[in-house]
Amino acid sequence: MSREPFLPMLRELARCYQAFEAYSSAHIRSLGLTPSQFDIVATLGNTPGMSFRELGEKTLITKGTLTGVVDRLEAQKLVRRSAAPEDGRSMIVSLTPTGERLFRRAFDAHLVHLRLALGGLDAKRLAQIEAALRGLRETFAAIDGRKAGAK
Asked: How far is CA 59 from the centre of its chain?
C-alpha cells in the first residue's frame, strides 16, 4: 500500500476543522443557538433578507436541513418569510427586529470568543494561512470544473 504525501496534510486539515468546530460550537450553544441557527442568523445579519437558494449557497447548511432550521427560527420569531417582490412563488427569509438584536449580540460575542483563539496571529500569518487554504480550495474547484466540462 503506497503512502500518499498529501495524507498528513489532509489529516491535519480535518483535525483543524474538528478543533475549530468544537471551539466555535460550544460558544454558540452557550448563546442559546445551534451552529446551524447561528449560521443563518449571521448570514442574514445586515442584509434585507435572502431567498432560500441564496441562503443555502452562503451557509454550510444543506437544503434539506435549511427549511427545518428556518422553521425553528421562525417559531422563535427570529426570522420571517415573505414573498419575493419579483416572484411571488419565491420566499425571502429576513431577520425580525428580535433577530437583528440577537444577531448584533451573538455575532459580536462570537467575534470576541474567536479573537481569544486567533487574536495572537499577526496579519502576515493570517494572510499566509488564508492563501494556503484558498489555494487548496481552488485545487478542488479546478478538478470539479474539469469534471463539469467533461459531461
From this structure: 4
